[in-house]
């Protein structure tokens, strides 16, 4: 049989078969329980189906083959039907002028779509399509092409051959460039490119009034490449590492051995997709509140920096499991940590920790707690309540005994290397004119007496100038100066200092005030047995007035210490602001 005759006969049979299919049959076979909103079928004067709408069904196994038998179809609407693929049988529907497949699960289109020569309206928005086949150029009749809210990363230049195209919707995709061939479409009346990552339009599209080009600078456009260029252009591969997930979002970022002494770059806190953040040895002076924006973080490693506390906003990180803050000048465990109940690993080795709050028992999921190389003398008994704990590292501290509450059969405890030099100390309780204590340690030039103060189990190093009687204290860095009042005690781990420009405090006995020399001791509290207390705030002195030590009233939060015959109230910024009293 002649092939042409065969094709004509096949076409005739197809049309005849299509003519015998009724709307009732289609509903019965495909959508028997559909509501009138989800099933609509229209026929022409001869009873042939020309329009079919079937929405909100489960076609995840494929579009029903019955539909491809309705060759008379001109309009086909299959919205929100969980369609994953389109069969090559779509070419049977060569009379289609409108194909609406919005809201499905398509990732690609078959090249056979290009054979639909009568297709004028193709709507594919709200799918997972990442690319278009170049055969799209064969759909010469296309007037409207909707591809919004897909996952398109590129557009083929062949789209510039769709000479009848009037409307092209490409908003909310992942496009970074647009082919200049689109600018050659003479009939184009609407081009929507909003919410992509297109940083520059082709020159032939600039200032065209039919182009919508909004919100193309979203953080979602950030790539590992331009992040490195922005933050770490000269970084070695070992100091910069960036990874993206299957949705092209950055989930892992490592930037080590850089100079962030001016602060962690703001752009990092806008990458809300981050799950792992490593910033080691970057000279970070503080961790800002914006860390709380990174709500998906599971792992933070910021060891080897220069911060002394952590912001309360860290509590927002409800998925955080690993927190490594070792090798930072922390003197106390930041109170916010006790509220991060999701923590599994907590690393705080080689800080300057002097105390551990009993509230650490709140970390019920904690498995590993590293506290080595600090200045700890005791561990709270309540550590034993951490039922999931399997490793506790306490080596190189001043801890004589592990609490009996810790089950050492269950928990691996490392507590060796008791540091005699660090853990043995003498008291500084001396005033000018008194004999130098026999156990005092002189400096080489015999001008200073060296020792430590002990309050509440902590240590505070310092020395006394023999000639002036001034007590010099060294605390987490720069030396601070306090005048030679009769007896001075400083509670280690509680007293809060800001650098005061190496100028001394002194007591004015007549005014019963302590006067600060320098400008940077903001927000600290100072007191002595002269019964005066002042507060330094914004470079101004607020005088709290005389305090009767024998009949005092509680003012805010305070620590009470007995030193010789004196009863001394010691107020600190931490206690007033509940920093150390969690």
Automatic annotation (TrEMBL):
<dbReference type="Pfam" id="PF23598">
    <property type="entry name" value="LRR_14"/>
</dbReference>
<dbReference type="InterPro" id="IPR003591">
    <property type="entry name" value="Leu-rich_rpt_typical-subtyp"/>
</dbReference>
<feature type="signal peptide">
    <location>
        <begin position="1"/>
        <end position="18"/>
    </location>
</feature>
<keyword id="KW-0677">Repeat</keyword>
<dbReference type="InterPro" id="IPR050216">
    <property type="entry name" value="LRR_domain-containing"/>
</dbReference>
<keyword id="KW-0433">Leucine-rich repeat</keyword>
<dbReference type="InterPro" id="IPR032675">
    <property type="entry name" value="LRR_dom_sf"/>
</dbReference>
<feature type="domain" description="Disease resistance R13L4/SHOC-2-like LRR">
    <location>
        <begin position="270"/>
        <end position="369"/>
    </location>
</feature>
<keyword id="KW-0732">Signal</keyword>
<dbReference type="InterPro" id="IPR001611">
    <property type="entry name" value="Leu-rich_rpt"/>
</dbReference>
<dbReference type="InterPro" id="IPR055414">
    <property type="entry name" value="LRR_R13L4/SHOC2-like"/>
</dbReference>
<protein>
    <submittedName>
        <fullName>RNI-like protein</fullName>
    </submittedName>
</protein>
<dbReference type="GO" id="GO:0005737">
    <property type="term" value="C:cytoplasm"/>
</dbReference>
<feature type="domain" description="Disease resistance R13L4/SHOC-2-like LRR">
    <location>
        <begin position="111"/>
        <end position="194"/>
    </location>
</feature>
